[in-house]
Amino acid sequence: MITKRENMFFLSGKGFSYIIRISPEGYILHDYFGAPVSPLPYGEDSRGWYCFQAEGSDGACVDELRTEYPCYGHTDLGSPAVMASRQPVLKYKSHEIVPGKPALKGLPSALPDGAETLVITAADEVIGVEVRLFYSVYQDQGVLCRHAEITNLADAPLTLDRAYSASLAFPGADYEEMHFAGSWGRERRPVSNSLVQGVYRIGNARGGSGHQMNPFVILKEKGAGEEHGGCFGFMLVYSGDHMTEIEVDQRGRTRVHQGINPFGFEKTLVKGETFTAPECLLAYGDGLGALSRSLHDFIRERICRGPWSRRERPILINNWEATYMDFNEEKLLSIASLAAELGIELFVLDDGWFGKRDNDRSSLGDWVVNRSKIPSGISGLAEKVNALGLKFGLWFEPEMVSPDSDLYRAHPDWAVRAERGPALVRSQLVLDLTRPEVREYVINAVNSALDSANIEYVKWDMNRYITDMPRKGFNYEYTLGLYEVMDAITSSHPNVLFEGCSGGGGRFDAGILCYMPQIWTSDDTDPLERLYIQYGTSFGYPPSTMGSHVTESPNQHTGRRPSMETRGAVSMSCNFGYELDITKLDEADREAVKRQTALCRELRGLVAFGDFYRLLDPFSDGVGGWMSVSKDKSRAFVFVMRALFRPNSAPMRLRLKGLDPAARYSVGGESFMGDMLMNRGIAVSFPFGDGASVSMILEKIEGSAE
Ligand code: DGJ
Predict the structure, then answer these.
(1) Domain containing 689: what range?
(2) Scanning 176, 306, 402, 702, which has the fewest C-beta atoms within 10 Å of its C-beta?
(3) Domain for residue 292, yes or no?
């Protein structure tokens, strides 16, 4: 709900309030963000004594104020949200409150269903710049969406060097920042730092949101944990270069900005032209768990879209780790046919099916089937796979070109290159999606492949970053081009399930999730590694967005030898699948696969669409775990894993979360009251050895409250 009373705007969503105040001088001030409060006006806080009482022409020292979209200069000396060739000083001009939520031009954004939006127009009449600040709230969601639009109203061009999406100023500095750092194979590890005076920058400038720093940052009150304490989430709906900047100023106040990374960014606006910054999701939770659950609901219900966003996902088998590029039709069909017998529902053909791609040195861009490997072609193969009772899915890497390809030979200038020439990474180059003819080629090539056969799933990969920006602003324009291409392909194939991927989880962000409801979480499929990766990813993103597959033992990335049970259990917590040569499994493991696929069918709705609770932090305890509870609290799935076996350690008692305290649940042949399970806990005995896991299913016993 949004109301204006006197000089204040009161915004509220599920579990939070957000208050904006217009100061007597016309500055747009941030007043409050946090737990719900009554929407009743009150006076401005004392501005206090400030040692440099430098006064602006209107009598205010702007450095002293906590503005909603700060601009450097005119007594404002903090880190600004915008930097331009003519630096504005913004004052309130007008506002409107509109039902729904305007779309962001050229950018993905949250769905408008049930939203209400406050648009505040601020202006600098002297230099001819107008900034519109957008705030959308939903009564059923714990997330507020913000972005900014900047318009040049003057004759002279206006060049933006920085234009963040949102900025938020907190009154104190008793916070820790938490971000999600990593690398290929080790994505999204939570890292926390106490803040002291200075500037912290968490970002990436690689042309993709990146394995290294996720565009999601949490500011938490000191002492806040899973269950209690103010936690503020900032998530950018953007897949390119991003930045979250946190400044603790000289007076001990904290400001967070989030938006496009200013490094390498530039946008020049002619008269009347508007720049739209990407959307930023702000979430508040009392505790990290509540914050995550708000974001999970929002991502499932307002970011992901299309028929698959609310549907249970098929259990897949992907041939990548089974065969890499060394396969033929017969081999693929042998895997698919056994997969059907074992209860798998979708067969995905990964890299290596097109051009003359037998290794990663050729053919990207030539999206034409290699008939020497697949004589029936993609449509024939899809028919044969369908005849076995499986859906058929296909891998693409649409943004790339190999120098050894017909596409590159015909259009060498279509590859991204700086003046010194293109730089190869994984023997490939990035296609210049800032060019309309390149976008058109990619859209047509992928669309015609999709229209040529019964393809019901697509894995959209991206295996290298942009390492040489040809010009300032390129990576931003590339990202807009990418979104145009993704939009054209996904919207013309609404029934295809798309899965994003980028060398594993190198582009795991809310921007991609607006086009594709799931993303391959990491190439690292070792269950122990996945415990950390999935745990870290869960802070921002729900299990319905993460892919997780059972692969072979010893694991190809770590050499560890996890049991089939553990491999299955950790993957069961996400979109479940297999990525190994199942024809080589012995009878016992085949039976295990049958049991797992049956169990997955029973649990996947609960896991994908239930409430997610982190139980134990593997980074600090060496034991990690989580559970999913159905929205009606009638069922739950619990997973815990111990990284290292310690001889002679005491048995563990695990306290569960999110259950109905007054209901009785059956678990492992016994039954317990919900309050008992949550307060006293339940005994867990791990199997012998490192990386051992325990899973439990809880079912509410009907009519059992006692
Ligand atoms: C990287 C992906 O993460 C893998 O799953 C696989 O699809 C390869 N690319 C194929 O090149």
Answers:
(1) 616-700
(2) 702
(3) yes
d(CA 187, CA 215): 12
pLDDT in tens, 468-485: 999 999 999 999 999 999
d(CA 657, CA 675): 9
pTM for the model: 0.97
Asked if 601 and 452 sit in the same domain, the reply is yes
Q: Which of 428, 520, 548, 551 to mutate to test the pocket of ligand 1 (most atoms within 8 A of CB)?
A: 520
Rounded to the nearest angstrom, the distance between the alpha carbon of 464 and the centre of ligand 1 is 11
Structure tokens at 610: 């239930």
Distance CA 465, CA 223 (A): 37
Strand-pair category, 82-84 with 2-5: unpaired
> Is the domain of 290 the same as that of 349?
no
Atom in ligand 1 nearest the alpha carbon of residue 523: 3
CATH code of 329's domain: 3.20.20.70
Calpha distance 397→690 (Å, rounded): 37
pLDDT tens sequence across 31-58? 999 999 999 999 988 877 666 665 566 7
* Domain count along the chain: 3
The one catalytic residue in 241, 249, 366, 461 is: 461
CATH code: domain of residue 670: 2.60.40.1180
- Determine the distance separating the centroid of ligand 1 and the alpha carbon of 501, expressed in angstroms: 8
Q: CB neighbours (10 Å) of residue 644?
A: 12
Tell me the pLDDT of the chain averaged across its residues. 96
Task: Tell me whether the omega of the peptide bond preceding residue 554 falls within 30 degrees of 0, making it cis.
Answer: yes
Residue 504 CA to ligand 1 centre (angstroms): 7
- Residue 326 catalytic? no
Distance CA 533, CA 445 (A): 34
